[in-house]
Amino acid sequence: MATDTRKVVLGAALLAISTVLILGTGAIDIGIPAAAGALAALGLAAGALLVGTSEDGRPV
Question: I need a surface site. Which of 14, 18, 22, 49 has the fewest CB within 10 A?
């Protein structure tokens, strides 16, 4: 099976950025606005979707 490396790289970047936004701000006790939290959650979902569909065949 071939892997689309662009999807993996973009998905991993979205996952990393969103994780840092959500967990990083919580660790240093800085509140983020609800809209930024919602965008970070969507970034996590989109990143997971891109990584999950990066190979040929049916995604899990």
Answer: 49
Q: Are 14 and 44 in contact (CB under 8 A)?
A: yes
| Cα-Cα-Cα-Cα dihedral sign, residues 34, 46, 17, 15 | positive
The answer to whether residue 6 sits within a structural domain is yes
- Contact between 15 and 51 under an 8 Å Cβ cutoff? The reply is yes
| Residue range(s) defining the domain that contains residue 40 | 1-53
pLDDT at residue 1, as a whole number: 55
Residue 25 domain-assigned? yes
pLDDT in tens, 1-59: 577 899 999 999 999 999 998 887 777 777 778 888 899 999 999 999 999 998 887 87
